[in-house]
Specification:
It contains 9 helices and 4 strands; from the N terminus they run E-H-E-H-E-E-H-H-H-H-H-H-H. By secondary structure, it is α+β, with helices and mostly antiparallel strands.
Length: about 240
């Protein structure tokens, strides 16, 4: 596993009155929100590859965004985005692949053709998985149950470890973990539903991911996640 065990002091969140960092000065910066699951994917990738000293975190207040972020840096005005080599890129799945292939640290994508194909398939299915669970919060709960069964089945393909590709922790795990984390806390709090019940592979996966120090550093108080999802879906 990576050298990503540095205990990092997290920088303060930048709101509308904050001055921008010295943009395009050669520093590599990852713009995130501490509570956004898409941003957490990229933040976790950075940490697991041990790149805390190579990629600077810049947290943005999504409820009170500074104008310079959209006007001078990233017109889509979303997080995550990555400032690297005087260019800015976005979209979390693209960014985790980019960081994995363009920076040092252990490879997080398989070389084995069968595992590579399975990894691509799972990553491309992640939006459908998330949409099914999110839509169930206001509608058909069976969609969520089927989505979690899909994950349980995927985790059963390789028997040599707790992760999607077996013993190898990969970008696939990073793709799903931030969302599963939020779904677990929200459903337990709001519906008293344990998504790991009857799904031993999913339970083992979540347990192992939560143990990983580089990932642990990207986690927030579950109450924050629950509060955000309550506001989005129940108020």
């Amino acid at each position: 596993m990576a050298s990503g065990l540095v205990k990092e002091v997290l920088p303060p969140v930048l709101g509308s009155t904050a001055e921008p960092p010295p943009l395009f000065d050669g520093t590599t910066r990852l713009y995130i929100s501490y509570t956004c699951p898409y941003a957490q994917r990229v933040w976790a990738t950075r940490n697991i590859k041990g790149l805390q000293d190579k990629i600077q975190l810049v947290p943005i207040d999504l409820q009170n965004r500074p104008d310079w972020y959209k006007e001078k840096l990233y017109p889509p005005n979303k997080v995550p985005s990555l400032e690297h080599n005087n260019e800015v890129q976005g979209e979390s799945l693209n960014l985790i692949k980019y960081i994995d292939s363009h920076f040092e640290g252990p490879s997080l994508f398989p070389h084995d053709p069968a595992k590579k194909e399975f990894a691509e398939e799972l990553m491309s299915s992640s939006d459908s998985f998330n949409s099914a669970v999110f839509s169930s919060f206001k509608g058909d709960e069976n969609k969520a149950y089927a989505a979690f069964d899909f994950v349980e089945t995927a985790l059963s393909k390789f028997e040599d470890g707790p992760f999607f590709l077996g013993h190898q922790f990969s970008l696939v795990d990073i793709t799903y973990a931030p969302f599963l984390e939020r779904f677990q806390h929200f459903l337990l709090d709001v519906k008293n539903y344990d998504l790991t019940a009857g799904r031993p592979k999913l339970a083992a996966f979540i347990e192992e991911v939560y143990k990983m120090e580089p990932y642990k550093q990207t986690r927030r108080d579950p109450k924050e996640y629950i509060g955000i999802l309550r506001k989005m879906f129940l108020e």
